[in-house]
Design goal:
Blueprint lengths: L1 H4 L4 E6 L12 E5 L3 E5 L4 H12 L3 E5 L4 H4 L16 E5 L2 E6 L2 E6 L6 H11 L18 E2 L3 H17 L4 E10 L6 H11 L4 E7 L2 E7 L2 E6 L2 E5 L1 E6 L4 H13 L1 H19 L8 E10 L3 E10 L7 H6 L9 E2 L1 H11 L10 E5 L5 E4 L4 E5 L4 E10 L5 H21 L3
């Protein structure tokens, strides 16, 4: 299915990798080709998206990049370099949608010929499905560079803790970029290998022309289904272990960590506040607090916050009042967004933004773009970013180690495909 889709300049593949969750709607969903599209910089992007949705009345797939913050939050700017170049907002109306659910395949297509859907189904069956050999790309990949080395990162964390001590903020998500220049990549091979090594419930392969996202995200940003909106912020991480007892101990230690629970609860409070702007009175509630969810590489602490939007609330009102997500910013949101711009050295772009879809009836589901490789084939620039939550009680060395842990799967995949 994905092999067939990769022939198009525009495609979006979302896969839950059979991860058990009561909130999943589809096992996988694929959208290809563009009947129409909307690309906008931050400023008036969300009103334009609402108008685009009202006009098409159709499925829309696309992304909100992190720098859309300059529209949703007052007085913010972005001045750092961005070598990937995804626009702040991009959505497309697909010509074809393939939905996988409960052992069934549903194909939606604008082609009026009765045989068109069957032709697509047969074309997908005939595509080569064997994973590619681990030889694509350069014969030798250079070591990734970074705008913040270990010493600079530790110093920046200490400076952020000084801001916390002064009362500027309580928690700030601080990220660093790893990148490789002059890199020839096979994005589809990268996705296959990353998805095999680190299958995640919000995995994605996303292409818009020469720009690619290879995503193994474990986190949902925002879902609107039925009468409810839910957000599932992640804060708290520990390494998985091959030994079952050690792995169980790591999960228990994460559950019992006062520091990690405090980080998670601070973001839960921020999300509750964000959702309250559009929620019916008294409907905001926490359905799971500090639950431990296990993924291929790590255990995470996950909470679920739900609300019922007020009647008539527009799609983009729900997005505007919650973006960027609290788990990738911190609290209070506006001040930490200023500090992120001050101390980080490259633009986040699509990283820590959101990718997903909007249905014709105005429901939607978006992930958080983390654990992801971004690639610009035109300038041969590859990037992957990781971060962690900085609080007063953070140990800068441990925060550095958490960034490295979160980068392990991406680094392994890139190394495998280039040696």
């Amino acid at each position: 299915m994905l092999n067939w889709a990769n022939q198009f300049n525009i495609c979006c593949f979302l896969d839950n990798n059979d991860y058990p969750s009561p909130y999943h709607r589809y096992e996988a969903i694929l959208a290809t080709e563009s009947l129409s599209s909307l690309q906008m910089p931050a400023g008036k992007a969300l009103p334009a998206l609402q108008q685009y949705f009202n006009t098409t009345g159709d499925w829309l797939f696309g992304h909100l990049a992190y720098d859309l913050k300059n529209e949703t939050q007052p007085g913010l700017t972005s001045s750092h370099p961005d070598s990937i170049g995804f626009p702040d907002l991009y959505f497309f109306q697909p010509a074809t949608i393939i939905l996988l659910e409960a052992g069934q395949v549903h194909i939606g297509i604008h082609d009026p010929k009765p045989s068109a859907a069957a032709a697509i189904y047969n074309a997908c069956l005939q595509c080569h499905t064997t994973p590619p050999p681990i030889t694509a790309g350069n014969t030798h990949a250079p070591a990734p560079a970074a705008h913040l080395n270990r010493t600079q990162y530790l110093h920046a964390v200490q400076q952020l803790q000084h801001h916390i001590h002064l009362g500027d903020c309580y928690e700030v998500n601080f990220c660093r970029e790893n990148f490789i220049t002059n890199y020839t990549a096979d994005p589809l091979a990268l996705f296959r290998q990353l998805n095999a090594l680190s299958p995640a419930p919000f995995a994605a392969y996303y292409r818009t022309g020469d720009r690619y996202l290879i995503c193994s995200s474990p986190e949902r940003f925002l879902q609107h289904t039925g009468d409810n909106v839910i957000s599932q912020p992640i804060k708290g991480t520990s390494r998985r272990h091959k030994d079952p007892q050690a792995d169980k101990d790591a999960a228990r230690q994460l559950h019992d960590s006062g520091k990690e629970r405090a980080e998670n609860i601070m973001i839960v409070d921020l999300v509750r506040n964000d959702l309250s702007h559009t929620a019916q009175k008294g409907s905001v509630h926490v359905t799971e607090l500090c639950g431990i969810h296990s993924f291929a590489q790590v255990h995470h602490m996950v909470s679920t916050v739900a609300a019922t939007p007020r009647p008539g609330t527009a799609v983009t009102d729900l997005l505007a009042t919650t973006f960027p997500m609290g788990s990738m910013t911190g609290a209070p949101k506006i001040r930490v967004l200023q500090l992120i711009e001050q101390y980080e050295k490259s633009r986040r772009g699509l990283y820590s933004g959101a990718l997903g879809y909007i249905t014709p009836d105005g429901r939607f589901d978006f992930n958080v773009v983390i654990r992801s490789i971004l690639y610009n084939a035109a300038n041969q620039y590859l990037s992957y970013q990781t971060g962690s939550a900085i609080t007063f009680y953070s140990d800068p060395e441990k925060e550095w180690e958490e960034c490295l842990l979160k980068a392990e799967a991406m680094h392994q995949v890139i190394s495998r495909l280039t040696h």
